[in-house]
Amino acid sequence: MFLLAGLIPALAAVAAAGTDERLVAGDIVAHESRGDAAGASAHMELLVRAPPAAVWAVIISCDLAYAYVDGLQDCEVLEDTGPRALVRQVVDQGWLSPTYAYVFESLRQPYARIDVHLVEGDLRALDAVWIFEETAEGTRVDYELSIQSSLPAPRFLVRRNLRRGVPDMLACIRGLADGSGSPARQREDLARCPGEPPPGLPAQ
User: Fold this and answer.
1) pTM of the model
2) Three-state SS for 131?
3) CATH assignment at residue 140
4) Of 64, 109, 147, 191, which is least surrounded by CB within 10 A?
């Protein structure tokens, strides 16, 4: 029992060190992704070699969301008081998936945390959290998402969209924040944008 009690923290430390190495190397680390009849969830981390304010500016921008949100057709800020914003989005990810229109609330602690919750629309649930930690290497971004649709969609499609879509979204955000770490990596990150990066950024 005592041996096990000492071993668990040691294994956790080894796992954390491995995650840190992967993040510094530029990997997007998936901690957990799942899907079931109710919906899907994902938890991922990445390192952005830019200050938290640069990453923050990309995430809260409707204009840049057209680049990093897959299938985004419309984005409108309905209200923005600073600490709280209401945003309406319309997303169409192809003929197998229904078109979703929804409004979400964004609760913001500048450059530290953003909490997202569904207000209304074609989703049963939408919860997400962004956590930003400034480190010597850049900004460590921790992202968790849980989503449930109120419209019929194939389960495999919901899971696939999260498993493939979230890493692409995060890579795109890193590129848009000019935090990829090198011109070559930035081109790779922007090439993963599901939408079109705005003019002035390196060609894909």
Assistant:
1) 0.84
2) strand
3) 3.30.530.20
4) 109
